[in-house]
Amino acid sequence: MYAYIDVIGVAFFVMAWLWLRKFEAKESRVLNRSTVTASDYTIRLMSVPEDTTEKELAMHFAELTGEAVAAVHLAFNNAKEIDMYEQRGKVRQKRYKCVQRIRYEKTMMKENKGKRKRLRKLMREREDITVLVRDKDEKRSKVINQNQKAIQAFVTFETEAGFVEAISQYQLNWFRKNGCCYPEKLKFKDKQLQVEQAPELSTIIWENLEYSSKGRFFCKCLTNSVALLAILFSVLLTFLALDFKSKVLENASMPCPDGCFDLDTEEKVNVTYFSISGLFCNSYYLPLC
Question: Which residues of the chain have pLDDT under 50?
Answer without folding.
Answer: 272-289
